[in-house]
Design a protein that fits this description.
Length: about 180
């Protein structure tokens, strides 16, 4: 995965933790460890990747919520706005970077999907490891990103596709299925 994309996802993760604190307490103090870590990471990210254009809307909004005071309070709505703008920034900076790949196919085509998954690994899509057990690839037939077939698998697939992450959807359609009669 793109290192810059990994960094911004980590910053979004810190926002999620700040939202949890604000949900519980009603706010998060600007001297809280989560907020201080977020500030350092977003500061480093913006300066490392030259994102300090004050006229660029997502950056301007991130900057607006910057609290230099150690006793300020940020409410959940403010942190949600920060997170939302980080996601906008992600979509702007990484239009063509996909973090997940969903393979839609017929059960009969499981062997072809296995070969396709292997091809994806050969061209550089990382395999799951002990350290990084979340699979980039998911489908209903391959053990690496297995979604169990059954009555609720469409809900699971919908949840995996409707995410803040960029998902590339591959439809495995064979020509013989196009010749099948419509029901």
């Amino acid at each position: 995965m793109n290192l810059k994309l990994k960094e911004i996802n980590e910053i979004i993760s810190w926002c999620n933790q700040m939202i949890d604190v604000a949900q519980k307490n009603g706010y998060i103090k600007s001297n809280h460890d989560y907020y201080r870590t977020y500030c350092k990471k977003i500061d480093d990210f913006c300066s490392t990747h030259n994102l300090e254009d004050k006229n660029y809307a997502p950056y301007a909004i991130l900057n607006m919520y910057w609290q230099p005071s150690s006793d300020a309070e940020l409410f959940k709505s403010e942190i949600v706005e920060i997170r939302h703008n980080l996601i906008l920034l992600t979509h702007e900076l990484f239009k063509d970077a996909y973090e997940k790949i969903f393979i839609s196919h017929r059960e009969k085509d499981a062997d072809q999907v296995a070969a396709f998954v292997e091809l994806l690994h050969v061209i550089g899509i990382p395999r799951t490891t002990v350290q990084d057990s979340e699979s980039i690839i998911f489908c209903t037939s391959h053990p690496e990103g297995y979604i169990k077939n059954g009555e609720r698998n469409l809900d699971k697939i919908r949840d995996m596709i409707t995410t803040d992450k960029h998902v590339f959807i591959f439809y495995g359609i064979r020509t013989d299925i196009l010749k099948a009669p419509l029901v």
